[in-house]
Amino acid sequence: xKKRLHKWRLIALLGIVGLVLxxxxxxxxxxxxxxGNVAQSxxxxxxxxxxxxxxxxxxxxxxFVVVLLRFRRKEGDETIPKxxxxxxxxxxxxxxxxxxxxxxxxxxxxxxxxxxADTKAMDKKDKDGKTKDALVVNVRANxxxxxxxxxxxxxxxxxxxxxxxxxKVYFNLTASDVKHSFWVPAxxxxxxxNTDGVNQFFLEFDSKKAEDSNNLFYGKCAELCGPSHALxxxxxxxxxxxxxxxxxxxxxxAKEPTVTGDLAKxxxxxxxxxxxxCHAVTPNDSRPExxxxxPNLATFGEREKVAGVLDHTEQNVKNWIKDxxxxxPGNTMTxxxxxxxxxxxxxxxxxxxxLKVEGK
Amino acid sequence: xxxxxxxxxxxxTIWDYLTTVDHKxxxxxxxxxxxxxxxxGGLEAMxxxxxxxxxxxxxxxxxxxxxxxxxxxxxxxxxxxxxxxxAVMNAVVPLQIGARDVAFPFxxxxxxWLFFFGGIFLNLSWFLGGAPDAGWTSYASLSLHxxxxxxxxxxxxxxxxxxxxxxxxxxxxxTIINMxxxxxxxxxxxxxxxxxxxVSALILFAFPPLTVGLVLMMFDRMFGSNFFDVAxxxxxxxxxxxxxxxxxxxxYILILPAFGxxxxxxxxxxxxxxxxxxxxxxATVLIGFLGFMVWAHHMFTTGLxxxxxxxxxxxxxxxxxxxxxxxxxxxxxxxxxxVKFTVPMLYAVAFIPTFTMGGVTGIMxxxxxxxxxxxxxxxxxxxxxxxxxxxxxxxxxxxxxFYWPKMFGTMLNEKLGQITFWTFLIxxxxxFFIQHFLGLMGMPRRVFTFLDNQGLNTGNMISTxxxxxxxxxxxxxxxxxxxxxxKNEKVGNDPWGDGRTLExxxxxxxxxxxxxxxxxxxxxxxxxxxxMEGKTEMTPAEPLGDxxxxxxxxxxxxxxxGLFVAxxxxxxxxxxxxxTLPIIIVGLLITFGSMLIRSVKDDHGYHIHKExxxxxxxxxxxx
Amino acid sequence: MQSDERFTDATWPASPEKATLEGKxxxxxxWLFLGGETVxxxxxxxxxxALKDKVPNGDAALAKDLFxxxxxFVATMLLLTSSLTSVYAMYHMKNNHFKQMQAWLVITVALxxxxxxxEIYEFNHYVHEYHHTFTSSAFGSAFYTLVxxxxxxxxxxxxxxxxLMVRNAxxxxxxYNAPKFYVAxxxxxxxxxxxxxxxxxxxxxxxxx
Lengths: 360, 623, 209
What we know:
The complex is a heterotrimer.
Chain A: H1 2-22, H2 37-70, H3 88-116, E1 135-142, E2 145-150, E3 155-158, E4 160-164, E5 168-175, E6 180-184, E7 188-193, E8 199-204, H4 207-212, E9 216-221, E10 234-239, H5 241-253, H6 262-274, E11 305-306, E12 310-311, H7 314-322, H8 324-327, H9 342-353
Parallel strand pairs in A: 1-5, 4-10
Antiparallel strand pairs in A: 1-2, 2-3, 5-8, 6-7, 6-9, 9-10, 11-12
Chain B: H1 10-19, H2 23-51, H3 62-96, H4 105-124, H5 140-145, H6 150-178, H7 191-222, H8 237-270, H9 277-290, H10 306-318, H11 320-334, H12 343-366, H13 368-374, H14 378-408, H15 414-440, H16 457-487, H17 526-532, E1 547-549, H18 555-573, H19 580-600, E2 606-608, H20 610-615
Antiparallel strand pairs in B: 1-2
Chain C: H1 21-51, H2 63-66, H3 69-94, H4 98-130, H5 138-167, H6 178-208
Helix pairs in contact in C: 1-5, 1-6, 3-4, 3-6, 4-5, 5-6
């Protein structure tokens, strides 16, 4: 009877754990809804370790409850319990069993550690120095914005990372000012972008899972980097292989933007006066990294968010240009372009929203 | 006692505490200042939880939030947990080994004042242009980037208080090795003394790397060196290594004393000797040793490569084994015992499931590839609060309740204690359990706000509610302390009735010389051994004789104060102000002058004469 | 027992530094302190090795350009000898020969000052000949910090031994100050050991490349 009770408890607990874990979070953000092989292997480890740990907790709690119920001192009870030194048998049991449990966890841990660090495909270069058969993205983290460079395609974009589904995407990670950390929870764990050296890893996005979250995932900075650390979000847009190829073609062939309408044309003038020193508007930006001081705006009109966190509306574009400090404290844009009048800001917003590559 | 402790005026009492070298009074100083910093750190925590109660909140600004989160972590670790641990160690360890004082009473006092002035210095940053804002880990690239003097306050404040900690560590090592009473062999030492011993060794080897790290950062910020300046060949990862080579042992420095306190409490209130004493000792030593082998598990995502990650992952998992041994030994100490649920015992009992949960999430974190997901997310926040609050803070609350009568001679109110216990415990689980899930759902740590529509709202609200419950519990505890102190109902030697170790064989509070005659120890739990033979006091190990006591001194305070002054000069020196150099010189003169006086002036202490001790018969104090 | 009472050669204990409880505590505590110091220098060595020859550009001097064997060899000999003379001093301390002890300590201190002088000359040389300064590169910062920390220890040790000699010049040896002399000499040996490592890791390995 007692045994059955324990079994029932175990099943119920596992059920609850599974339910809680799977029911948690949004598909575009949650590590509990893995959207690719990397995240899946990490999720599997999470489940395995949780199961082992729940087992341990159950044993401890059962013993614990028994003790609390059975060995309570009665009022006025002055008997002296037997003084027991210990028990070698018991002590060996609770040394050996944990070791066995840990081995069960340690083996897949070590295997996965090496699997996830396998970036050999990045090193195979053809005679032009391009990576042979892997898609490589250089991620450069800056105070509160992200740059994504596709070195083999000669294309630079920012804030919205575009990747194909169902293949490994390799990353070179670095930071240009302070340490940040690159994290797309639904696609896999994070890796730091250090100021010294380049870190490499890969992620994968499953096409079916991507559809569940409308081909859009949230990315975060996971290392404290200053006041607006919490607002250093980016987005990952997933595309099928063919769509991705079409996108890269658009990006590669994109020329200087041409805008329509008087207001937007005025905006272009304002932009060329005040903004162009830092922001580029074409995706084929061949300047060195150090010169690329601000996000590339070639696809600004197609972005998911303004400044990574605000909804993509014209009003928010205006608000942002007017007072970036209000929306991202400590950003490096504030105060670098003088005072703009309201009409200038309106014009600028009209111009910026026409900056598109795909022609959506 | 009449000749030594007449009723003193207020000023005389203050002076007494400023100059004291008595370990029991230093314990009280540590308790008061640690308690004060605990309240400050708690207030900072409340600010954090209020800000994060709802999405897009603007209760505090982004920059200010970073200062709060940094100071919350730094204060709680260095200025609250450490001194409170030292308070209990100072109050109890010399008594448990049957010593009249620590090995270096003067250094004991110096250690306290260095900690105290370091802590004050760090907290003055709030009023002098802003607190540090790069997290308690203060990673090099961000902390060099940080403007203002916040980080300088961090560096100098921790340097001073860290020095105090190092001194305290050496002091306890020597005390435990050299000052044990006859018969108190190593394998008869109470577990709390054992854990103090191991912890002191950890301090000795863990604090120098922090010192070096802080020196490098100080040089970089103040004197233009290039340790962490990548453009000039520097490397920021050095800071991460140095910090965690210190930082990981540091968490064991905090948790092992809590383990020790719980071991005493379980045995006492089960009326049963500790189950598996020798394996408990072994486990304590092993945990301390392994604590130095695992620092890089804080850096799995730094990019050290799969070999390092795999090695450190497996090494980290190994720590679960000795910790597991301890958990089961505690449970089996109660098994077959006669368990009485006093307030300290409630904390001890609640500690077992709570800490087990923190421990198992620790194992989950050790699995490196999975840690890529957990790292720097709220999962980690939940984990370390489960071990630090669920282990260290519960341990300290238990210890303070348990040893309060020994330190002050009066019992804390059990009813109010129970209210504190339940609200604190429930509030704690409410606050932190949900945070595991917040982290897995994609919430990074150290964020000053979070956006709406990310599925994070409910969890954060629950967490904030829990925090208020915890705050209520602490408030009740403060009230309890005040009421108890006002009432001041005196208790006898062994107020819990089940005391097992030497400290319960002498009056509460003990006379300033602790033991009139050093006691003879005849086994583990020496007082219990005597009790079981029907005796009420220890057998003396020496005839009644003169007792040698150290002199009080103001010099520890002035040495520490000089560094405090010099630190201000050094801090503002980087602004090219003219007045800073004289300040540095004056400060160092005070410090080195005091040290010179200490060195040159002979201090032989004094003797309490046999005849005076005879008069004390009615006051107890007999071994 | 008065720890400052006068002793004759007959009553002077074999290990005067450990004859009292205070002395025993001081002896053990200081050994432990040296354990902590070892970790401190280990951290500095690790930092130095990580940053060795890490300079911002090709013009900056590297280890193999800077270091010259003769100078550092002489410095090493000076410090090693001073360690030996402090051993003689402690030998006489144990035999209650106060005058001889003081004499050997004077020689120790003189050698220490000579070492310090050479070090100052050496630093000056690097700064002026090679523009290798504390702020010129990460290598410079790490070098001056490691070697400078050692130099600072030497300076502190000198001050310490001198003040002990001056303070006790008139009253001679007793059980109160014997542990103090002993501990100071321990410190001096420790400095010497650290220097042996600096000589090996920084200079010899630096010259090899």
